[in-house]
Amino acid sequence: MDLPPTPPTLTDGHVTLRAHSPDDAQGSYEATLDPDYQRWTSVPLPVSLEGARHFVGTLMPGAWADGSSWGFAVEHDGSYVGSVELRPDDREAGVAEVAFGSHPRVRGLRIEGRSVMERALRLLLTWGFDEAGVRTVMWRAHRGNWASRRLAWKVGFRVEGTVRRWTTQRGERHDAWIGTLLHDDSRQPPTTWLTAPPLQGEQVVLRPFTDADVPRIVEACDDERTRHWLGRLPEPYDEDAARDYLLHVGEQQADGRGVWWAVTDPATDELLGSMALFGVDPGREAEVGYWAHPAARGRGVTTEATGLALRFAFGMLGVQRVVAFAAVDNAASRRVLEANGLTQYATERLGARIRTGPADQACLDVLAEEWLAGQVARMRAGGPQA
């Protein structure tokens, strides 16, 4: 398909896509000064105003002219606030890769429910599919670039997986998330992005994990007892393993497959353990799982945290059944589950993997109506409810 010699002007009434101009150099330079911009993109370092002038005045117009990239400047309220591109990979097959970057002043700015960059990306994709003959758009980002992933998710990209050491940035290889959007796909989020809302108990607060939890995660998961029962933990368990765990947590939530909480002390916010609902089948069931920091054992912390998670599962997630699995000999874990109304319905021979090898596994569950009946019985007896 023949394209105009310069980018057309596109607008939704709030955001405009247009050709880059030498006047955009200052805004482009300011964007590249942002630490997040430098962290997640391949902008040459050190950044400079001269480099920005080259980008907006030579590189982007030249790429449009030779067909290597269809790039637009993003304008909002009369100012340059970023760039969006489609980079043709196979024009005959209609395959292109999307790229985008924004000025920090518009991050989080929403206009009638949509961010500036979401509006810009929607304009770009509509033009690409309708005018440029694109049929498949690829998206990729360094693993951990949550802002990019969330924006891609909002406009309908389906994350296909993680490719190890796929992207190159300043001579280093990085794991990458890869996603696709087809011309006939819905431009709506393909999954429910689950989040971990704070849950308040008497002894614990459940909240989202943060990077500050990494040292305590290492302490918990490098503990001999934890390692014995959780036989799949990496060895050695170091800070890199803990950060990978947090990435895994975020990926599961982004795909709608689970919710993970840090179990913390209400007074100090110190990490006491992990609580999770995973394998979520909306409206049907979820699995509950957990581990405790050694300093938190024997205090009823995990029992209370499990009760809070079950309330969320049956109330907010709307599942009808929660299942759990524990090695038959893991008496402490089974007590936590039984105290919250789960009962054993089967034993799976050699179904658990503990540090010393396969072990028999207890399979437990509780239905929504059973759990609710247990809560009512505890209330009438004057005992604590989850």
Overview of this structure, please?
This protein is an alpha+beta fold and 386 residues long. It folds into 2 domains: 10-182, Gcn5-related N-acetyltransferase (GNAT) (Aminopeptidase, 3-Layer(aba) Sandwich); 199-381, Gcn5-related N-acetyltransferase (GNAT) (Aminopeptidase, 3-Layer(aba) Sandwich), CATH 3.40.630.30. The chain has 11 helices and 18 strands. It has helices at 25-32, 35-40, 49-66, 116-131, 146-154, 214-221, 224-229, 239-254, 301-315, 331-339, 368-381, and strands spanning 10-11, 15-18, 70-76, 79-90, 95-102, 110-111, 114-115, 136-142, 158-169, 172-182, 199-200, 205-207, 258-264, 271-281, 285-292, 321-327, 343-354, 357-367. Strands 1-2-3-4-5-8-10-9 form an 8-stranded mixed beta sheet, with helices on both faces. Strand 6 (110-111) and strand 7 form a beta hairpin. The longest helix has 18 residues, at 49-66. It starts with 9 loop residues before the first strand and ends in a 5-residue tail after the last helix.
CATH class of the largest domain: Alpha Beta
State the helicity in percent bands: 25-40%
Largest sheet: 8 strands, mixed
Main structural class: alpha+beta
The CATH superfamily title of the largest domain:
Gcn5-related N-acetyltransferase (GNAT)
Question: Mean pLDDT, as a whole number?
Answer: 96
Integer-rounded radius of gyration: 25 Å
Name given to the CATH architecture of the largest domain: 3-Layer(aba) Sandwich
Total helical segments: 11
